[in-house]
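Reopening this ticket.

The earlier resolution said the output was attached, but the attachment link was broken on my side. Pasting everything inline this time so it's all in one place.
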Amino acid sequence: MKILTLWLALLGLAGCTTTTTIDEYRSSNKQLTVATNDSVVLLGRRDAGHYETDAEFVDCVGNKLRSSQLQVIPEQAFMDALYPWLEPRTAPKGLMRMRQLMQEPLVGEAISSQSIRYFVWLDGSTETLDKGGSISCAAGPGGAGCFGFAKWDKASIYEAIVWDVSDYSEVARVRVDSEGTSYLIGAVAPIPLLTPVKSDACKSLGKQLQSLFVAD
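Inline output:
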């Protein structure tokens, strides 16, 4: 039993790796210039009632960009300042709607006062794709324990769309796909071996977005 448990643990450790791919598109080969007082705002895509990009993921990418000295405005603070224009029912889905929204005095003033140059829209999710195996736990006079083996595949797929507020243009898109398999080994006590697909997706997307921007 000990040999089997060790073998399963080694199998889990060998398999708990993440495969991440990144695709990038730019409207031109030029990097996106950011002046000293320019700001970037990250916003998660939302659809009223049934869809919302993970706010935790948006914050994670924002923190990665802040580490490169970019001025990144927190999502919730910006949404509060522009309430209700960025609520799911009214948030712009395209550049034409963005132009119309900028005509609203409150919106135009808020964007201008915070020197916002780029909007980065984040869209995507982390999902479990497949599950296998089983774990059973029981308690008795001799003690309690869990036995079995389970695994599941997870995928984090996110896309960042960058808009230049100065001329209402889409200047870049970055997509990241991160996949991996996690394991749960029942060897008296459950042993989880988790693959950090969402964390890896955040790091990869944040690093790629950093490479887009350059100080003017």
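Reporter confirms the inline version is readable. The two ends are 63 Å apart (CA to CA). The helical segments are 2-15, 55-66, 75-81, 95-102, 105-113, 197-212.
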